[in-house]
Amino acid sequence: MLREAEAGWPSAVSADLNAEHITLSDDEIRERMSGNLCRCAAYANIVPAIAEVTR
Amino acid sequence: MKPFRYERAGDAAAAIAMLSQEPAGAFLAGGTNLVDLMKLGVAQPQVLIDISHLPYNRVEPLDDGGVRIGAAVRNSDLAADRSIRARYPVLAQALLAGASGQLRNLATTGGNLLQRTRCVYFQDISKPCNKRQPGSGCPAREGYHRNLAILGASEACVATHPSDMAVALVALDAVVRVLGPKGERAIPLVHFHRLPGDEPQRDTVLEHGELITAVDLPPLAFATRSHYRKVRDRASYAFALLSVAAALDVAGGVVRDARIAFGGVAHVAWRASKAEAALRGQPATEEVFRRAADAELADARPLRDNAFKIPLARNTLVRTLLDLTQEENR
Fold first, then answer.
1. DSSP result, B153-210
2. Which residue of A4, A9, A22, A27 is the best one to mutate when testing the B interface, meaning the one whose CB has the most B CBs within 10 A?
3. How many whole angstroms separate alpha carbon B258 and alpha carbon B90?
4. Chain B contact for A1 (CB, 8 A cutoff)
5. How many CB atoms lie under 10 A from the CB of residue B142?
6. Which residue among B110, B243, B263, B282 is least crowded, i.e. fewest CB within 10 A of its CB?
7. Residues 23..42 of A with a Cβ closer than 8 Å to B: which?
8. Judging by beta carbons within 10 Å of its beta carbon (0-12, 13-18, 19+), is residue B184 exposed, middle or buried?
9. What's the whole-model pTM score?
10. What is the strand order of the sheet B175-180 is part of?
11. What residues contact residue B132 under an 8 Å CB cut-off, 6+ apart?
12. What is the mean pLDDT of residues B149-158?
């Protein structure tokens, strides 16, 4: 997921489809985590944990 | 899950020859829908012919200025393709609105077109379903149908086609290229999926043994101003209750041309030709957009629990066209 964002792969919530680089906002992280069977993006600490890794 | 044989085709000709010999066979590409249906007992192929490795995995320019999308191109790769994102944003957005990252990494362009309805009765082998078992009946008409069709349905079937990608492709006048025992043919996507009529078991006009090799997009300059808007029960990872794919060509406040399709309303990705005709040459105003939506939706025949889709379709189309018009003014 981090590599896709670095490569500029958009998601359903990306405002600019043609951006060179995607900044992983909380909405971007949630969208990119959706579809994991555990739905773990729904747990409060998962999004901040991923955001911390991106920093 | 029933036992089945697995074969890997050496090339397209071999794949077609193999399937033509196997009345109860099926091609296997990403498998994201077929394998699920096999687990449920809805699909029971005796042999799977793997075609996922055949050399149809490129997105390449066509001489006429259009784009050829290989049938084996994965949904993720197509959504990320630079030429698709820049020239046909509605298609990239539709792909990204579908399924999840994991599924998009496996699902192919050809397979996406061939996915089956998610009508709950079709997927439950303990229930009758005219699509799964012709002549057995349709419990959806009286039962759970809030997600099902409002346009083009029949007494036999009220299923919807689940693809997001197909909605964008049908708006863009895509053409499906097919190879079969009798040679090659090109089928406009708008004629590829069929309305249920009294043969709901047939989703498409494909004959047994025919293989999708590519989807061609004609050039469409104003598709750079296009958008896909999807309405669903959850923010992500859910099928569309209703979706709109639209491209708009506006100059000096007047609509020169438009391409519009609805998803989640019919057995096919629904090309809204009546709405398009109602827009051409008219001022790009909310009132005109509303009239165009009404022109298309006048034919809607909702069921007990899905009449909400009519105002939802109208409002979603108007909002999408207003957004595209504002983009024009910037």
1. --SS-------SHHHHHHHTT-EEEEEETTEEEEEEHHHHB---TT-TT--BSPPTT-
2. A9
3. 13
4. yes
5. 9
6. B282
7. 30-32, 34-36
8. exposed
9. 0.97
10. B59-61, B67-70, B211-217, B175-180, B183-188
11. B42, B122, B125, B201
12. 98
B178 contacts: CB under 8 Å, gap ≥ 6: B184, B185, B186, B187, B206, B210, B211, B212, B213
Structure tokens at B205: 């006009």
Q: Are B149 and B160 in contact (CB under 8 A)?
A: yes
- Cα B165 from Cα B93, distance rounded (Å): 9
Tell me the per-residue pLDDT of B97-108, one tens digit each, with 9 for 90 and over: 999 999 999 999
DSSP B248: E
pLDDT given at position A34 = 85
Q: pLDDT per residue over B222-248, tens digit each? A: 999 999 999 999 989 999 999 999 999
Q: How far apart are CA B152 and CA B299, in angstroms?
A: 8
Quick check: B79 and A18 CB within 8 A? no
Give dist(CA B75, CA A12) in Å, integer: 13
| Angstrom distance (rounded) from CA B304 to CA B144 | 10
Instruction: Give the containing element (helix H, strand E) for B69.
Output: strand B67-70
B134: tokens are 């012709």
**Which among B85, B86, B237 has the least Cβ separation from residue A34?**
B237
Cα angle at B72 between B245 and B178, to 5 degrees? 80
The pair of three-digit structure tokens given for residue B320, joined into one six-digit string: 């999408």
CA distance linking residue B117 with residue B202, whole number of Å: 11
- Which amino acid appears at position B46 of this protein? Q
For residue B235, give the nearest of A40, A14, A30, A50 by alpha carbon: A30
Q: What is the ipTM of this complex?
A: 0.91
Q: What is the C-alpha separation between B272 and B324, in angstroms, rounded?
A: 17
b/e code A11-48 from CB counts within 10 Å (16+ = b): bbbbeebeeeebebeeebbbbbbbbeeeeebeeeebbe
- Residue B26 β-bridge partners: B48
Q: Classify the C-alpha dihedral B323-B231-B173-B175 as positive or negative.
A: positive
